Amino acid sequence: MNINAEIISVGTEILLGRLINTNASYLSGRFAEMGVNVFYHSVVGDNPSRLSTALEAALRRSDIVVTTGGLGPTVDDITIGAISKTFSRPLVFNKNIAAGIKNYFGKKRVKMHPYVLRQAYVPKGARAFRNSVGTAPACVMACGKKTVIALPGPPGELVPAFERFVIPYIKERHKTGFVILTRAVRAAGAAESAVNRKIKNILAMDGAVKAGIYSRPGEVDIALTAKAESEKKALALIKKSEKKILRALGKKVYGFDSDTLEYAVGKRLLKKGLVLSTAESCTGGLLASRITDIPGSSRYFEKGVITYSDKSKIKELGVSEKIIKAHGAVSRPTARAMAEGLLEKSDSDIALALTGIAGPSGGTRRKPVGLVYIAAARKTKAKKTKCIERRFTGNRASVKRQAASAALDLLRNTL
Fold first, then answer.
1. Cα angle vertex 238, ends 22, 26, to 5°?
2. What pTM does this model have?
3. End of a domain among 129, 156, 173?
4. What pLDDT was estimated at residue 237?
5. Which domain holds residue 386?
6. 330 and 310 within one domain
């Protein structure tokens, strides 16, 4: 049975581009896993009449309508009022929700203003759920055979409410008879075009499994999607295509689904019992930040130093002034000296160093913006240092992100 859902994101800040709408992406993914089709996304500003129009249109074409945002206590939080008016459901005071709001402020030891309790009013007949991390409740409402769901806007509140309350409700009320499963194969060290050439036959398949390729700064994802009667059957279909991709891309693949390069690297360091330190110039600490994003990274990460100026490279890493004068701060010899200097001044087994020009200024014809040198030095008998040159495009943030990814990939291959 086909069940169609629609997502209406409420908030003028989304329309103005001040807020990235991650909620719609998350909800679409979770609906797909339940076998529910999502055919429409829309964004409506903080305007009751326009929201009512959007709700009416959505309910005509979809079985499940989800709103996100606009459930707070301020005057621009208009979602519940619009739902109440659109479906002719008067608002009623929910004592359980009110108690949860009071308890929330009591735990924080913050005075609660009476207007906050306006969040305890929900449409008559709706089922409301306490917010475990905030005050705005989620609620679900049956409209004949169709369902309207109102969720808080902050992702930290939306996700727990959807996972804990809404998913069980949808599965009970709307049975689809199948699931849609997506698995991502994650690769690094190759451009999207290069990956496309290697797996173009897989991408062109028109069968039970659909494949798509998506690029991110310094990385490429291949998404495999299958529709089947159960998750087990869908996964079995995906695995066949996955094996073909692994054969085609080989060591370019570093993980699956939510795996990250920093996670893959950390896992290898931990397995080999090795300790890492980093020296960064153009990335300004981004590399160390990504490495320490992984819980337990203290077991394999000793320290990260930011040597942005030439003077700091000389003082903190022992880079020869002659090397910088002869080759420049952004050069292969300087990157190698940074890594080797850090290795000498640390108790680490591996040192990773970056130097480059992130832009938008500072580039020359010989050394353009986006030029980055990355070096990896190891405390082995051979004492080999590997250094690579990369030329990235994009704005400053993108160059930094790509450089950090390239450094992690170099480390992954070094290990």
1. 10
2. 0.77
3. 173
4. 93
5. 261-414
6. yes
